[in-house]
UniProtKB/TrEMBL annotation:
InterPro entries: DNA_mismatch_repair_MutS_C, DNA_mismatch_repair_MutS_sf, MutS, P-loop_NTPase. One of its GO terms (molecular function) is ATP binding. One of its GO terms (biological process) is mismatch repair. Keywords: ATP-binding, DNA-binding, Nucleotide-binding. This is MutS domain III. Residues 256-435 form the DNA mismatch repair proteins mutS family domain. It comes from Chitinophaga niabensis.
């Protein structure tokens, strides 16, 4: 089963986007190779849903975080090697020998460059293998080639480098016949093994790069628990894109599955909700997270409703788009999935009375779905007073505003309870809008 995160959620949390400088993908996309970038994209698009696999990947990242390494390969050489293998020979050996011989003849007759390009690609491949040989010696000396994330890479490299068929071509000068033989060996006999070695090399690139970013930013690694545990405990949660972010701690379990969040505009509600969603998404990828500690039961997916747009083509108002979003989430929750749900200011597209009634009814209904966890924020703090009758399943927290004269200051630190802070008019007055009018 695939981890669920639809386009709305991915956009709300700014998770994907190579060309979006503010995306979480861009934060980690500092890899050295094109192949590693492709692998990183795959990891972002396909979070894991098994605790064992999540923890295994986290341990690999943790290893490279504790054993700092420099990626030892040249990006251009790896790209050239990949292109050479993709364009390389196929078919039987006599056909390959004939094709190489023909390329050499055309070079001599009409100065065609296909033979020289073939030799160049072949030499690049050999140089990469020599780099692998040097790295293998270093890993063996340090004892890292076994029982570590290097183990699969080392085994793949060793299976090629130690093959005696390669030693016959270990010479600076090669005849056309030798060139054809080596070309056949690399692009036919060893082709699948070489491609596998490249894939593992790209994986190492991701491990080294991501763990380095985690070390620089003081990210940590989560512990994934089986789905049946039904808990989520996070300490020191912060948004990975916000410098000097104020950390907060949250916790959910089957008996307390809703966080009801109040606070004024600019108090940090949306940032906290996005930070939590991003943290859980990265945790299911096995990636480092912006938190001091995280233990979580594996979920089936994440749904968010932060920036729900209207749809003029379909004639949907902002409010109706919100209603459809809540309906979609309700259907998923009712299908017995384990989900993490973020609702930022439910029903803000309608009047206060309808928003009050709808927020109260929907939040109360969600208390019954104990396998799912919810963060629901609102400006309508009066709803909270009514929801207290639902018992301990709802946690009431707020982000406070401290008034210094007529200027609001935000602590961004969660407190228990419900706040009645409303500074909208104060901000409008401070900006001098009324004086202008």
């Amino acid at each position: 089963m695939s981890f669920i995160a639809d386009k709305q959620t991915l956009d709300d949390l700014s998770l994907l986007g190579k060309y979006n400088a503010g995306s979480i993908f861009s934060l980690f996309n500092q890899v050295h190779t094109r192949g590693a970038e492709k692998l990183l994209d795959i990891m972002f698009r396909h979070p894991l849903t098994e605790a064992e696999k999540i923890n295994s990947r986290s341990e690999a990242f943790r290893y490279f975080g504790e054993h700092a390494a420099i990626f030892p390969f040249d990006e251009q050489q790896l790209n050239s090697m990949e292109a050479y293998l993709e364009e390389g020979g196929s078919g039987n050996a006599p056909l390959v020998y004939w094709q190489v011989g023909r390329k050499k003849l055309m070079e001599l007759l009409v100065k065609e460059d296909t033979y020289s390009l073939l030799v160049e690609g072949m030499n690049t491949c050999i140089n990469v293998l020599k780099c692998c040989a040097g790295l293998l010696k270093q890993l063996e000396k340090e004892g890292r080639d076994t029982n570590s994330p290097w183990e699969k890479w080392a085994a793949a490299a060793r299976s090629i480098i130690e093959d005696k068929r390669l030693t016959a071509y270990d010479t600076a000068e090669r005849s056309v016949f030798q060139t054809a033989g080596l070309h056949y060996l690399l692009t036919h006999v060893f082709q699948s093994r070489l491609k596998h070695l490249l894939e593992l090399t790209y994986e190492i690139d991701v491990y080294i790069t991501v763990s380095g970013i985690a070390r620089e930013r003081d990210f940590t690694y989560a512990l994934a628990l089986p789905k049946g545990k039904n808990i989520l405990v996070a300490e020191g949660v912060r948004h990975p894109r916000v410098e000097k972010a104020v950390p907060n701690s949250i916790a959910f379990n089957g008996d307390s599955n809703i966080l009801f969040l109040t606070g004024a505009n600019m108090a940090g509600k949306s940032t906290l909700m996005k930070a939590t969603g991003i943290m859980l998404y990265l945790a299911h990828m096995g990636f480092p997270v912006a938190a001091d500690d995280l233990q979580f039961s594996v979920l089936d997916g994440i749904y968010s409703s932060v920036n729900v747009p209207d749809d003029l083509n379909r004639g949907y108002s902002h409010f109706y788009a919100e209603v459809l979003r809540v309906k979609k989430v309700a259907e998923e929750v009712d299908s017995e999935k384990h989900l993490f749900v973020i609702f930022d200011e439910l029903f803000k597209g309608t009047n206060v009375k309808d928003a009050y009634d709808a927020t109260l009814a929907v939040t109360a209904a969600f208390t019954a779905f104990r396998e799912c966890f919810f963060i629901i924020s609102t400006h309508i703090f009066e709803v909270g007073e009514e929801l207290k009758a639902e018992g301990d399943s709802i946690q009431f927290v707020f982000l406070p505003t401290v008034m210094e004269g007529t200027v609001p200051r935000y602590t961004y630190t969660l407190q228990k309870g419900i706040t009645e802070d409303r500074q909208g008019m104060i901000i409008i007055e401070n900006e001098g809008i009324l004086d202008m009018l």
